Amino acid sequence: LIIGNEGCGKSEAVAALSYLLGSNLNSLCLTPEVESSALIGQYIPNEEKATLGGIVRWHDGVVSEAFRNGYWSLLDNLNQAHAEVLERINPILEAPPHLILTEKGETTPVQGDLHFKIFATMTPSAASSSIGNSELSPALANRFTIMWMEDLNSNIDEGTGELSQLVSRLLDTNCMDQTISLCKSLLNKEARMDSNFRHIIRLLDNAYKLQA
After folding, report:
1. Which chain positions lie within coiled-coil regions (predicted)?
2. In terms of pTM, does the model score above 0.85?
3. Can you give the CATH number for the domain in which 85 is found?
4. Above 90 in pLDDT, residue 101?
């Protein structure tokens, strides 16, 4: 469970790590409207019923699909979901992890893959601009290893080293100085109070595409 302010790079860090390690990543942004079926699965109309014979078919949710196939699962904004939705993934967070698809009518556990990993992110309610954010129950929080992520250093002098490391991985030397200067302008609190790591990543991504 990665906790940090909005836009500090929580989801980007997981996505980058999964890419570097060659793991498939199933992501879901949680909101108060998300139901447990998005995590576990549900029956949906079978558009191929003419050939397969059934009116409906089972469709795995992002967590159950990842659990079965050894993918990584990322649940963004974990504390925005209702408690009863989050309770459904409790068995996967236990040791050893297990999952029974009762919604499918099954009584035997799904055979999970050893490479499966589940990540979650949340923004503390005091630091969030979203209305639905709440604190996690201790029972759920204790099932995770918790990591706190800091924002990109907004101190212009101290943050230059971090920016240089980011930019050097993406851009050639001809673009580096100009891009770093622009990033520093974004991080200048007097110029823009709400700039964060997310804005920096988007800027670098666009600079990389223009360079290509």
Report:
1. none
2. no
3. 3.40.50.300
4. yes
